[in-house]
Amino acid sequence: MALEWNDRFAVGVDEIDNQHKELFKRVNSLTDAMMHKRGKDEIAGVFKFLENYVIAHFGMEERCMARYNYHDEAAHKVQHNEFIKAFNELKKRYDEVGASSDVVVMTNSKLGGWLRTHIPVTDKALGTFILSLKAEIGRLAV
Ligand SMILES: [Fe+2]
Question: pTM of the entire structure?
């Protein structure tokens, strides 16, 4: 079942929202492929995408937190690091056994959980913080 991006997931900072939308697209494409029994064909592309994404996207959020002295930086980074750890374990399993059904299902489930929990709660709190700073001191770079 596809999880469509909507305002509930918007953190209000375009640079962050655009990258999140890209992740939604990827996850939905994997889910769709799985429903059509093509999940195993899609998974290599998902891992390749995630390898770059976690570095670029988490890096951007973390630079932002550091730059603006975000009060919840440590807890937010813990969640990023837990995701990276889970991703590395899935990737290791993929490298060992290839595109097995369990790797496809576990990866999809991990990503779906991330979209449903990290983005609307943890990232949204960061977005709210950035927006409040912007309101106070004008335009800020992320
Ligand atoms: Fe985040």
Answer: 0.91
- Spell out the CATH class of 12-132: mainly alpha
**Which tens digits make up the pLDDT trace of 11-45?**
999 999 999 999 999 999 999 999 999 999 999 99
DSSP code per residue over 55-102: IIIIHHHHHHHHHTT-TTHHHHHHHHHHHHHHHHHHHHHHHHH-S-HH
Q: Give 109 Cα–ligand 1 centroid separation in angstroms.
A: 18
| Of 101, 138, 123, nearest in space to 8 by CA | 123
Residues in the chain: 142
The H or E element spanning position 140 is none
How many angstroms is it from 97 CA to the middle of ligand 1?
30
Cα dihedral sign, 70-131-4-95: negative
